[in-house]
Amino acid sequence: MLQDKWKGKVLELESICGCLVKKGRQSAVPTPVIETIYHLLNYQTNGNYSCGEG
Q1: Distance set, CA 45 to CA 21, 27, 32 (Å)
Q2: What pTM, to 2 d.p., does this model score?
Q3: Do the beta carbons of residue 25 and residue 34 sit within 8 Å?
Q4: Based on C-alpha coordinates, what's the Rg of the chain?
């Protein structure tokens, strides 16, 4: 993802981080680090802070 960011490409944020956040919530497994990374990158990329489904 970092190389994509450097090259100005679209990040595969949902398929990489979003999927893990969603699976963690479905399984009741806490994923605080990946959730933080997901939300920060989502905000930085889209200017959008999503508190809902990952």
Answers
A1: 18, 27, 20
A2: 0.69
A3: no
A4: 11
Residue pLDDT tens, the chain, 54 long: 777 777 877 778 888 888 999 999 999 999 999 999 888 888 887 776 555 554
Query: How many CA within 13 A on the CB side of residue 9?
Result: 9
**Structure tokens, 17:** 């981080």
Place of tokens 């398929």: 15
Cα–Cα distance, 5 to 22 (Å, whole number): 23
Q: Which residues of 13-51 are buried (b: 16+ CB within 10 A; e: fewer)?
A: beeebbebbeebeeeeeebeebbebbbebbeeeeeeeee
Give me the amino acid identity at 48. N
